[in-house]
Automatic annotation (TrEMBL):
It comes from Primorskyibacter flagellatus. InterPro entries: RutC-like_sf, YjgF/YER057c/UK114. PANTHER family: BLR7761 PROTEIN (PTHR43857), YJGH FAMILY PROTEIN (PTHR43857:SF1). Gene3D superfamilies: RutC-like (3.30.1330.40). SUPFAM superfamilies: YjgF-like. This is Enamine deaminase RidA, house cleaning of reactive enamine intermediates, YjgF/YER057c/UK114 family.
Amino acid sequence: MIRRIHSGGPFEEKIGYCRAVVVDGWVYVSGTVGQGDTVIAQCRSALDVIGKALKEAGAGFDDVVRVHYYLPDVSEFEACWPVLSETFGAHPPAATMIQAALIDPKFRIEIEVTAKLP
């Protein structure tokens, strides 16, 4: 059984995807951007959206096993480290940071996660 989770974000309908897909005990959360004027605010906002999708799927940040961070400006990544460390705490996932252009220049970070259902 495949379950799709929608957050109602504007790009979901325009592009044709959902926030997360739950299948075979795994939760795949789409790349998620956040709102705000700073990379830190956008990071927190994106994690909030991801956290809601994980919760709806029956998981949490403790269950995340893989995360990808996409930033147009890699020099901004370090500012997010305290937020990420606080979010994942004692259960850090495997992680990759990639420099990439995002869908709109106003976005400064996009975060994608994979979690295993408990």
